[in-house]
């Protein structure tokens, strides 16, 4: 089954899931040749292992609390906070609380 992505000019809801967070899954909201937007859902204690993406990225915590580790530094993101990472930055993400976040990755000019 093909993934449903946002269409140009059509609003996509990204407000916190609230009480329904437990039943949600990570999903790609939009992907083009130059940009990808993902809604990350991560339950408390779960993590994404060390990885990197080819382009610059932001991660905006929508609800809960996430710890992002990169280059020996650890940053805790709470709801309403956004963090920028340069291209090719190895990082890992761990949920301190049940969380969702909006991840935006620049793809253009990075071999895509």
Word description of this protein:
- By secondary structure, the chain is mostly beta strands.
- The chain contains no helices and nine strands.
- The strands form two sheets. It has a five-stranded antiparallel β-sheet, with no helix packed on it.
- The chain is globular and about 35 Å long.
- It starts with 26 loop residues before the first strand and ends in a 6-residue tail after the last strand.
- The model has no long low-confidence stretch (mean pLDDT 91).
Report the strand count.
Answer: 9
What structural category arises from helix and sheet content?
A: mainly beta
Rg computed from alpha carbons, rounded to a whole number of angstroms: 14 Å
Distance between the termini: 23 Å
* Mean pLDDT over the full residue set: 91
Biggest sheet overview:
5 strands, antiparallel
What percent of residues are in strands?
A: over 45%
Write the SSE topology:
Layout: E1 27-31, E2 35-42, E3 47-51, E4 57-63, E5 65-70, E6 73-78, E7 82-85, E8 91-95, E9 99-106
Antiparallel strand pairs: 1-2, 2-9, 3-8, 4-7, 4-9, 5-6, 5-8
Task: Name the features.
single chain, 112 residues, mainly beta, 5-stranded antiparallel sheet, 4-stranded antiparallel sheet, 9 strands
């Amino acid at each position: 089954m093909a993934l449903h992505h946002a269409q140009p000019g059509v609003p996509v809801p990204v407000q916190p899931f609230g009480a329904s967070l437990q039943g949600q899954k990570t999903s790609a909201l939009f992907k083009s040749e130059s940009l990808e937007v993902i809604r990350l859902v991560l339950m408390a204690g779960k993590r994404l292992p060390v990885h990197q993406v080819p382009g610059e990225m932001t991660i905006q915590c929508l609800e809960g609390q996430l710890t992002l580790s990169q280059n020996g530094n650890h940053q805790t993101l709470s709801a309403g906070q956004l963090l920028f990472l340069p291209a090719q930055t190895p990082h890992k993400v761990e949920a301190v609380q049940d969380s969702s976040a909006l991840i935006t990755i620049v793809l253009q000019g990075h071999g895509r």
